[in-house]
Every structure is written in structure tokens, then in C-alpha cells.
Amino acid sequence: MMRWLCSSGSRQAVRGLFSALLFLFGVACDNQHQISEVLFSNVPENFTSIRFQNTLSEDKDFNIIEYLYFYNGAGVGLADFNRDGKLDVYLVANQLPNRLYLNEGDWHFRDITEASGTAGTGNWKTGVTIADVNADGWPDIFVTGVGGYKKFTSRNQLLINNGNLTFTDRTEELGLAFQGLSTHAAFFDYDRDGDLDVYLVNHSVHSPRSYGRKSLRFETDSLAGDRLYRNERIPTGNLQFTDVTRAAGIFSSQIGYGLAVATADLNNDGFPDIYVSNDFHENDYLYINQKDGTFRQELEKSLPHSSRFSMGNEVADVNNDGWLDILSLDMLPYDEPVIKTSAGEDTYEVYQFKLQYGYHPQIARNNLQLNRGLDSGRLFFSDIAWYAGVAATDWSWGALLADFDGDQRKDLFVTNGIVRRPNDMDFVSFIASDSAQRLLEKDPLPFIRQMPTGKVPNQIFQNQGNRFVKMNDAWGIQNPTFSNGAAYGDLDNDGDLDLVVNNINEPASVLRNNSTAPFQRLSIYDSTSPGNPFAIGARVKIQSGNVVQMFELQSNRGWCSSSSTEISFSVSGDYRVEILWPDGTIQQEPGSKDLIRRIHKSSLPAPPEQWASVWLEPFASGIQHVHQENEFNAFSRESLIPHMLTTEGPPLAVNDFNADGLDDVYVGGGRGQTGALYLQSPQGLFKQLQQKAFAPDTIAEDVDAVWVDVDGDRDNDLIVVGGGQEKLTRNRGLQPRLYLNDAGKLTDATRQFPQVYLNASCVKPADFDGDGDVDLFIGASVMPFLYGMAPLSYLWINDGRGYFTDFPRWAGASRFDNVSQVRPGMVKDAAWGDVNLDGRLDLVLAGEWMPITVLVQQPDHTFLNLSDAYGLKATRGWWNTLHAADLDADGDLDFVAGNLGLNSRLTASRQQPLTMLLGDFDANGSSDHILVYYNGAAQYPFATRDELVKQLPMLKKKYLKYQDYRNVQLVDLIPPEQKQQSAELTIDMLSTVVIWNEGGKLTVQPLPAEAQWAPVFAVTSDDLDGDQYPDLLLGGNLLATQPSLGPYDASYGTVLRNTGGRTFVSVSPTETGLVLKGQVRDMQVLRGAQGKKIYLVARNRAHVQAFRSVRK
Fold first, then answer.
1. Three-state SS for 979?
2. What SS3 state is found at 422?
3. What is the pLDDT of residues 240-264, one digit of tens each?
4. Cα–chain-centroid distance for residue 1079?
5. Integer angstrom CA distances of residue 482 from 46, 100, 485, 527, 529
6. Cα 252 from chain centre
């Protein structure tokens, strides 16, 4: 038989021969012609002789009712067990014997299970990890299983490789004979003493003890709860493992539903950290290595949220920035009918209840946590799963991040599918009755068969740079399966990565990689190491041009699986290799043309780390004001709106109050809290100056404020507006407020304003009528109980003495794209500027469900809506903020508009807009909202069946079952005659953008990726890098959202460097020094002492962050 070991130049000929051989030998192949057309082709079992199937036999003792993880499947292990240069395959079976297949070349394998003694023990095995435990140069096998629970009899098993294709069970002898609810294990050198320790991840089962507050994690359970074992070989000379779980700070309780573990150096300090995926209500664990044999669990301080039903995970550098990122898998379907029939997120009330019980926010979807680096020594991550396109892959088990196509970026392979879906809502409703429960106790099997199947194709994505594109058809991953464990490795020694997948009730899949890219394979070995010759934990960097690929050697990759630790990579041109060995020494090697290469350790001491200086540094400003937010749930009365407008403050207003040349600041208050005025000292610190005028205004929730001279006395007065989404009443909190400045003392002069009450969003002063005094535009964002309708915004005219009157017809003959037609919309922000350079100030507006609106001032001082004429018709969005500045130095004002962003389940475009219907569809006198979105090419109501029936009870009879709702379109819900009587709002753009002013036209340009990862609520500009171009600073996030959308919390502030030529480039937080946590609502630049600028950042429910420029 022709060997398949060939160079890329001869592959085409071999593929043709292989196709012919398949035909001659009668081997079945579904799509033989695709072998040379797709990236992966399945090598059938009749050819490989890998005749393995993880067959499950269900009976009254073994089923998903008796054991909730019955369909979790089992793992795969790849390693060269006989050191002949070819990867062998170990497959785990839950109920049947495990199998070991020896690779004999030419894609032919021989079953040596019985001869090798590797079949496993007991009746329920789960995972496999392969590592050289005894450091003799031969890979050993560690198998996990379930035992000591009901009728499950497996135990964990360590099989030591004897070097002759036989293995000896030394589990008990070496101290690893744990029996319980084990899922998987990781071998790693956590204390960096030179030998391999073990982290054992165990799951739990539901019991009365597994529900309660987060503090349950400090208890210890005999069957559940993870374990950490220290290898005593280096200090004692004897290979023995000691349980150090509690002493090392590892949780080991009954609420630890551990389903996966990854060990990697996440904070780049040379010591491996640990990430554990926990199912159900317990949060995932992020253990940071303290370098003294202990760990500190810091997930809540580093990740704004995590997956809710966390299953598999993977750690790799997805964007080639030198920091390892975390992918955590969950079970959100991508197919709309499955979404509509499956249990989804908690209600908002339950979500809040879990937070009150101490749990960190969780979202039932995949999380791609991008590692942003360190802030004050602590890691921080941004979940960009929706932006990246990997948030929903259905019931997902294993993730593998690796370069499969040779473009120097790590692609993603996900195994998924479940034999039966226990979260199907019709099934859940069916078994909820008392009669069903009684029958269930007698014989669960008839009920189990009522669960729908979840057979779907595995998912494969091409990494295109922070965004992943599904490539199932193009890359040959199409067949529906129940896949769980998976591992990658170069099975045919051609350099690229092949895949082995463990399927339930079907033959295992062996997938050959047909890439023609110039792959090479690299392994490293340390023959001097007494306990870790394969250098587990080593970090390898391969640099070719400006691209640096980084790999960290870990054996446990894939669901319950163990992938090859050899590195497959592709480069363009020359390259060099840098190895950071586990002991901290560094070795650099030139590139090579060899297809397969091994580098032995010959290292030098690590050079000192070079840290680049940052642009900004945080400092303790002395501003003690901590914003307070009252608890108000707008969803309780408008249950189907996408988010609340209750967290819009606080604002900042900058002014040199005491005329000393240094800028001072007013910080807005929340409900039940006054605002505060802070004066800056020559040392750049701030001290509060008490103002009695603020005392009566604790009822207000400040959302915007500005200093301006309204009465012509040459000092600036303070104007503050309040908002929120509570009931609109005639109370001072919703009345714009004026504080006159009288020689450093503020006095309340609100009586000089018209007596109006509104949920304001902004106040913008300008002498729009050119009479020498300052007039005011006050925008309104929302009408309580009528989200989506356009409230009344105001333009007030100053009489020159600080008394204002309303200009009711300021919008003139303008028409607007909303139901009112005469009101601009849900205005969130505004900016004055002479857009058309005619000498008159124009007004630009931004808001929710409205386009960027350009109101051009007419000679009679009214305004005409010319948005369409300026090219802004297709800019309807969820705009939050506007910033005006001349960004291209051409003498006119450009604009930056902060939008929802692209990191959301909701998408919008001109071809596929996001839509919301607003009307009283059930004729009960209150407003109803129906949000309609696109999933693929079809349009669906966003609400679940339960959510919609609760809002519109008359639909319950129509949709008695969830299956009835699975393919519902809008026309099925609302008859055409009712739709005609409702308000229809649309959005066709969600990107945060810069709008370039080109005289008679405004050109919209989306900002770089980092600006799209969260809603932007605050923008300012300044030349941060000294190149004379104004750079952009953006901040945002929004947590007051529906649980089905999840919190928008991926932003830590974004700095976009203006490179000229109307181009912006994102600069990482580790380079700028700007790290903003929480919900940013305002950003201001102040003149500071000693020529330095100060940057203040106001955050909802938090203190004001302060930064100062490092350069003068």
C-alpha cells in the first residue's frame, strides 16, 4: 500500500491514487470527489481499521434521569506510545472497553488494547489525559471515570507505559486512586519544581446540598469537587502524589459541577494558572497561581461574566498578541426552531436573585474571553463571542483552537450534538405533572424517548482576525453527529493537523487534513529534566515577519481529551523560534526547512523584560464621589423592551470655577444623592467644595450637565438635567435645573426655566440665533410606559438675562422617521456645529431607533431635517452619544457617534433591519412591544413563547405547545390590520462610527473592531501620542439589559490612534494605560497642574476614575 507520507508537492498525485484505491477496495466514501476539494475528508473505518463506537445502552439504572451527564460522551487521546514517530490513538468508551490503536502508517491502525492492558476499569469511563508521568520518556495514560455513585463502578486509572506497548496500572501505588464523579484531568507543573502535578476536575449531581448561596463552595464533598495533587518526585525522589487541594486554595464542594479544566500561564508570569468550567449555577473558576504553591480564585475580578452551562473550554492565543485567551462552551442553539423550543435564560428577577446569592453574572452561550492584559497586576478579559461569530454552536462539548488551514491564525473546531435534549420545553412541561412524576419513578425509559434528538453537525470556523467565519461546507464538516471528545495531531506526518472525534452510537471520525499550505511540525524535548522531559507548560513563539504565533504546550485539549503536544505551524518566508522552557530559561533558534523537527533544550538565562512606557497613568484624584443608582426595574411594566434607560448617569461638567487656571469639575448625582463640585489644587488633586444649592435635588438622577454663562456676568453657571425611565411626574427630579454662579456660590435659579418635566438625555448650549447670549437645546430620550415613542425635546431661547422661553416650533417644517413625524425621536445626545459652513449653527441629533439627524438652521432660525440629503438615511441605530471635533484638520466639524456595537445577538443592516412593533395588541390599555430580528435569512420575534404569552395572553391558545411556536413569523402573531395600526421602528446600523464632514455630504465610516465590542456612551478626543492628530477615547457598557441579550460589558475603554488620512488604529490598554471598568457614562479632558492633562471618567455605580498624561 502506498504510504501517505509525502511532501505538499506530491500530494495531488497521492490523492488521486487514494481515490482509486478506495474504489478498487470497495471502501465506502460519501463524497470521494471532495477529497481534493475540501479541507477535511473522513477516512472510513474500513480503511483505518479503527472500529470503535461509543455505544450507550440505556436501562432503568443507566439513563439521563438517573445520571444527568449520561449523554456527555468520552474522550480521545493522541500520542506516540511506541516512539516510532507516528501518533497512536486512544479512544474512551463510557460503558464498553476503551481501545488503543497503533499507527502503522498509510492511515492504517492496529487494535492492541488487550495486549497492552489499556481497556480501562468499571462501567463508566469519561476522559483521558496523556503525559509522561514518571519522566522516563514514554507517554503514560490517565483515564477518569465515575464510581462510588449509585451503580457506577469505575475509578480513575493511571497506566504507566512500560516501553514495550504494554502498560501497568500504578494508580493506587502512586496516590491517584480517587473514585467519584470524575470528568477529566490535567497534568502540569503548577509549583515549577520540575515534575508534573495533577488537577482532577470532578462534576456534581443535583441534590438538596447543591443548591444555595455561593458560600457552599467552601465546603468539601467526597464524590464531587475538584482535587489538586502535588507530585513529590522532585523534593523526595519518590514518584508519589499528595492531595493538596485545600492547602492550595482549590474549591472542592458539591456545587462544583466541573466539566473541563485548562492549565496555562494566563498572566505571563511564568507560572501556570487554572481555568475550570462549571455547569449550572456555580461560576467558573479562574485560579491565579500565587507562585508559593497556592492559588487565588479571581474570576469575579477578571471576567465581567462567564458561561452559565459551561462545558468544554480551550485556551489559546486567538489574535496573536502574546496573551492567551479563553473559550468557554455552552449550549445556545443557532437554529431558530431549537431556540424557540429550548429552555433559555432566567427571567430578569431570577437573574437578579442569583446575583443576590453571591453568584457572578452568567450567560447561557459560548464566551470568547479575549485576554486584554494586566491592570494593576490583575488580568482582565473582554467577551467578544458575538462579535467573533462563535457565541452559538448548539449543545457544545469540545473546542480545539489550532491553525488548520495554514494562514498563521488559530481556527476553531467544536464538537456538539446530544442524543436527546432534556431542556426541550414541551418535554419539561410534560414531565412536570404529578402523574408523570409517579410514572417516571416506575420506568423512566418511555419518558426519555419523548425527548427530541439533538443530532447536528460539528462546527468549524476559520479565524479571519478576531472574527470567525463558519466553514462547514467548504471544509467538509457536514454530517450530523453526537460528537463529544476530539483531539488534533499530525496522524500522517505531513505537517498539518488531523482530527479524531469520539461519537456516541456511531463510529469514531478520523478526519484527514488536506491542506496544501506549507505546514511544518515542531516538537521540543528536555532530556535534562528529571520530571518533565516533554516540557509540558513550555511556551513556543514562532515569528515570521510581523506575525508572532504563540503556543503553550498542554496535553489536555478537547472535551475529556488529550491532543498532541507537537506544534504544527505554517509561515510565509523566514522565521525564528523562541522557546520559554518551564524553568524560565529562554532558547532562540533559527528557522528550518525541515518538515518535522525536534529541538532539544540548550537554554540561556532569560533576558530582562522590557516594558514600554504607557500614555496615561491612573492616580488617586481625591474625588470621593461614588455614584449611586436606585433599583428600578422597567421590565416589570414593559417586559419586552430590549434594555432599560435607567443607568444613564452620572455626567461630568468641567469649568475653571475659581479662575485659577486649573479646571474643576461637577460630578452628577444619582437618585437619593446630590451632585458634587470638586476644585483642583496646584498639585493636581481635587477637593470638594460644598454647595447648599444641591441639597434639595437628591430626588434627581443627573444624566447631563454643563457650565455656561447664561446671565452675561462673565462667570459660568451650572445647568443639570435629570432622567431615567420612571413614571413621568411633576417633580423637581425631572425638571431641568439652573444654578447661578454668584462669586463662587451657586444659587438655585430653576425658576428662570420654563416649567417642564421630561426624562432628559442631554443639555447643549449655543447661541444659535446669534443675539449674543446662550440658548439651550434639551433632548428627551424616553416616555415611560411608551418605550419607542418619540418624546418632546425642547429649544429654549435666552432673553440675555438668563431667563428662558420655549421655542415650540423650532423644528419648523421638518418631518421625522417615527410615528409622531414632528418630533425627532428618542434623542440621546446632540451637538451644535455649522455643518454646511453657511455661518449659522446647525443641530445634529442621535438616539435610539432614529438615524443620525442633521437639522440645518434656516434664516428664520427654525431647523429643517436634511438627514437624507446628507447621506444619513440608512443610519437608524441605537445611538447613545455624539462627539464633535475637527478630526481631519480640514476646518469643519466631524462627528463620532457611539452605537450599540456589533457584539450582540441582535444584528442589523439595511437588507436585514432590526424591527420593533409598538401597539396595544391585546387591547388592555397598555403598550406592547414585539422585537423582530433576523436569524440567517428569516425574520423571527425575539421573545420566547413564555415571554410573549405573558405579555399577550390571547396567544396562549394559539401556541399551546412550544413546537407550535418554533417557526413563528411576525405575520403569524399580528394580523396585517393590527400591524397597520401599530408603530413600526427599524434599525439598520449598529456600528459605532465616525462621520466625516465633506461640505455638502456626510460620510459614515465604522470605527475599528475594538470600538464595536460594547455600546459606546462616552467619547472625547485629544492628542495622546503627540503627533498633532486628535486621537479618540471611547467608553461604555450597559448592564440594564434583558437576560436573553446578556450584559454588554466587553469594553475597558478604547483608545483609537488617529494616524491621519481619516484612519484610526486601536491601541491596546497595556500600551495606553487606560483601563476603564464598569459602565462609563462620561469622559472629560481637564487642564491640570504643571502642564499635564487630566482625564476624568464617570461611571454608573462607581467612583470617578482619573488618569493623567505621562508626556507633557
1. helix
2. coil
3. 999 999 999 999 999 999 999 999 9
4. 16
5. 21, 21, 10, 41, 41
6. 27
